[in-house]
Amino acid sequence: MPDLQRYFVPAENWHDNEVVITDEDAHHISRVMRAKSGDEIICNHPDGQAAVTEITTMTSDHVYAVIKEWLEGSAESPIAITIAQGLPKSDKFEFVLQKGTELGAAAFIPVQSDRTIVTWDHKKMEKKMKRFKKIVKEASEQSHRNKIPSIQPVTEINQLAEESNGFDLKLLAYEEEAKTDVYQSFGMVIRRLNPDDRVLIVIGPEGGFSGQEADILKQNDFVPVRLGPRILRTETAALYALASVSYQFEELG
Amino acid sequence: MPDLQRYFVPAENWHDNEVVITDEDAHHISRVMRAKSGDEIICNHPDGQAAVTEITTMTSDHVYAVIKEWLEGSAESPIAITIAQGLPKSDKFEFVLQKGTELGAAAFIPVQSDRTIVTWDHKKMEKKMKRFKKIVKEASEQSHRNKIPSIQPVTEINQLAEESNGFDLKLLAYEEEAKTDVYQSFGMVIRRLNPDDRVLIVIGPEGGFSGQEADILKQNDFVPVRLGPRILRTETAALYALASVSYQFEELG
What we know:
Two copies of one chain form a homodimer.
Chain A: E1 6-8, E2 14-15, E3 18-22, H1 23-32, E4 40-44, E5 50-58, E6 62-71, E7 80-86, H2 90-102, E8 107-112, H3 125-142, E9 150-151, E10 155-156, H4 157-162, E11 169-173, H5 175-179, H6 186-191, E12 198-203, H7 211-219, E13 223-225, H8 234-252
Parallel strand pairs in A: 1-4, 7-8, 7-12, 8-9, 8-10, 11-12, 11-13
Antiparallel strand pairs in A: 2-3, 3-6, 4-5, 5-6
Helix pairs in contact in A: 2-3, 2-8
């Protein structure tokens, strides 16, 4: 596969054999990459397919390209992992979004919990979400993914528990588990998964979940696991989980 | 194990039944933690052992504590992994040090290579190294490790190849490997390791290794591997490798 620049293009911009790239991506192609007619780029369709395309025309804010070849193969994980992350500071959440996207996450849910120290200003939420979406889009392009992970609105524990029914496996990365000698082995739980399974992993905020929150999750079939024997910072836990699942299903095979 | 604050104490400060804590750590205990006589702290000996101790006396810059109980168990990885990291910008290297320590690395080697974009000012090296050491010490304490990873001086590829003989396995995380369909499976290589094996993992800088550098490493028995099917940023690659080895040997067991 040629090492071409990748762009995610919304479904409505695909017409028969032509793709139209607009807005910031069009600007990136013409001004940053300084592309010209005849140059090739890879366009990703939201359904996960990708095609090598050739640029035909560029206007000030549109780039038109024709599909030359649909690409086979995918860099998507066989296991769809949703990371429900207890709200850390904004920059740490952005870190989880960027690295988590590289490591194959399917979706992210910021979780408001009892011990969340930070509060995200509701008025700034729209702007913040726009920035978050930009981070996962760029990380998806950079890591050659076929799909952009979704980011859900800030969710509370009760709501998370209610909405968790659709998942095949629900895990609670519980710091307390790492300190005891008796715990659920993360490896054993992960190894039992099958391709196309959907997994929800909940990770506590900096201060950890309260006992009450942990109880709500456990009552809703969240399995407490430890992520290795060392105490991980909240923003490192998601990466441990994602790298491990990738190792198990994409490298051990 | 009680969730007490941990401090790494140099070997010369352990006397029979007493431990003496000095400098910044003494300051941390008295001023930040506001500890008093009778309070307990965990002291880590450089040999990897740790003990619960009770504070007896505090002066302006010394804290004296008696050993109450040696702790069993260890949060150290059974596989000693050295991360040889192609020099990224300073803040990214600091990120690798902090997260890599949490994830169990035994040592770090900053590697100067052909495509290294950044140069680290030799005059500032001493100050920089002091800062690096502080980061790994604090991350070791925070993650409840028994040992502080070492940080070696900046090393060039030829020198790294020469000094790599003591390792049981040498890996080259080679971005090009992730793009092809035929590659060495990281899982298969890792699975064959035995406890106490020493592994050296070399990770290219932002621009990747030059072909010549990759050749030097391959001639010196470095095995090229891919770390999952997605293209990882240089600072994410070390974390993928460390989390995977932890998963294999500390969670799959």
